[in-house]
């Protein structure tokens, strides 16, 4: 579930719940609308409870699209499960977002 | 327990058996005229252990055993002659394999020390192999870990890549998600097999955001993977996706041509992929250049090397090799099964069977009783046949648990050899009565006390060769293990022709420790038994093996726990005999059924000598007294009234019966109300609550459904005798 909010600094999109193959189609449509809405989008991942490769692909899609149209996309507040998935796939440096690593 | 665990369990117990066999063959090797047969046996054991270990990917075991096998192979071919040094080395190797198998069982990995030890052994094996080998074309034992992946593979002529890591390329089929595949899960699994050194996720065909289908997989990876796992295992991680995706797995140190094949096979641009390989650390830049050069060369010379042949030549598909290994393995296993002619049964299942047979015996007895009451001749007749059959079934079932003690005895060959060497003594082990059978659980439990007695005899008993010469004994000491049946019990003797027990020394020590008072009269038997006191040691020097003052009391305690006894006979200067008496089995009893008031008791039949009637003329009867004597053909026989002993109440009948039981040469009488007769039964142990009750060793169920208690005769005899001696002391005062 993606919620979108406009703040003074820019736009923040927030994803809550799982990002998996089960809701990938629905999420993709929400992503597309969010991406269109702003030049500087922050994507808050703090509330992502579960992510699989399909979910990751959506993030890749978003990033590639914003690069393509020369907009900014920043992923923030990676939840633990997101961070772990990024690490496994070696995608941390590709997204190149600041990640706060909390002590286990 | 899943299937793999079960098969692994089977492998572990089979390996242990093979290792035992290997050890006894090794120990016999020196004495044998024709060594070929033993050598083949030893080789076969090592080979089987290695082969099966390969199937379970137990690399430690495979590597080590391979080294051992190579040496054994040369010995078998006669290139190396067996000698004592080699035997010792191989015995040590056997121990190391044992250790590795233990690790497999407990799922632990080798400690640093063991690992080093293993390496040192392998090194020695190699040196031995080289020294002894007259063959100039020596094959180095393969010590690398990827035997299954790299062995038996011919390489095409191209240099090896220096990387120690696997390289895995994966391109997922677009429909992977729809098939329920999550590449993340596969990577997580892969990470359990080793360390993912680097991973590059590729999505070269990723469409624009609008065209992208979120349910299609666009990903691929290049992974640089560090692992001790074999190729089959790594392939296993990708098993489910292989059909519709591209997976290439290159083992460590593959040829550059393999990488060329990989680069060719993947959809990306040659150069781009090459870059990734370099980045991930799988290839060095030089190697990449060489590879691309070689590829160009091949292209320009229009040599069409079929990809398939490159792949096969370079060991990408080791399955056929592996499959044939497994087939061969199975053949060996089949042969082995025929040789042994036995099957392995879970001990628990056997216990269950024996329990059921016990119930059957009880139910049979009950039915037989009813048939007697009915007076129907035909019914009585048929029940007598049934009873006989049930008894045979019971005997056969109990027989299943019986094993020969020889296996346990033979283990001591090794102990004696090693300990004698350590002590600088020359000792031979003589085994007799190895075919004597007893219950498996007893065999297992007796092994530790026996070990202690054997070590004790070697250390304290048998003297060093020069001392023996002075005493005019042969320099070679003798240690004997003997077993035989004696009145329903098994006797195991550990004897030696050593120095024997020094009574004076023991006595002095006992006085020092306050165990006996000065001037107290004490007979030789009692002196000997002092060595079983806790913390009692007469050793002058504390050695590695014994003399720390622990042990003999523990030995005694362990044996007592098995309802057995241990005693020692000794002749100073000539030797000592330790005799352990144990019940044959802990499960069954031939009993004599008696009644007191309304309670039934069973006395183990092997301890019953006779039954006599109690009358006033032959005894000092006082009905209120718990204990008295009777005159048994002129002999004084102490007896005890079980009625009073167990506080059963009621009145003593006019005619009492005395059952004379004997234990270790002491006779006592047990007075009861009524004799019922012989009775065969299966012992049911008493619950924990009753474990402290003296004089009762177990219970059994009668045909009528009543419970009868089994009397613990040894403890009763002891009790009566102590009361006797206390009384004697009392009356003297």
UniProtKB/TrEMBL annotation, chain A:
CDD domains: STAS_anti-anti-sigma_factors. It comes from the Bacteria. Residues 12-104 form the STAS domain. It comes from Shewanella psychromarinicola. Pfam families: STAS_2 (PF13466). This is Anti-sigma factor antagonist. InterPro entries: MlaB-like_STAS, MlaB_ABC_Transporter, STAS_dom, STAS_dom_sf.
From TrEMBL, chain B:
Residues 588-722 form the CheW-like domain. Keywords: ATP-binding, Chemotaxis, Coiled coil, Kinase, Nucleotide-binding, Phosphoprotein, Transferase, Two-component regulatory system. It catalyses: ATP + protein L-histidine = ADP + protein N-phospho-L-histidine. Gene3D superfamilies: Histidine kinase CheA-like, homodimeric domain (1.10.287.560), Histidine kinase-like ATPase, C-terminal domain (3.30.565.10), HPT domain (1.20.120.160), SH3 Domains (2.30.30.40). One of its GO terms (cellular component) is cytoplasm. Residues 386-586 form the Histidine kinase domain. CDD domains: CheA_reg, HATPase_CheA-like, HPT. SMART domains: CheW, H-kinase_dim, HATPase_c, HPT. Residues 1-104 form the HPt domain. Pfam families: CheW (PF01584), H-kinase_dim (PF02895), HATPase_c (PF02518), Hpt (PF01627). The keyword Lipoprotein does not apply. Its EC number is 2.7.13.3. This is Chemotaxis protein CheA.
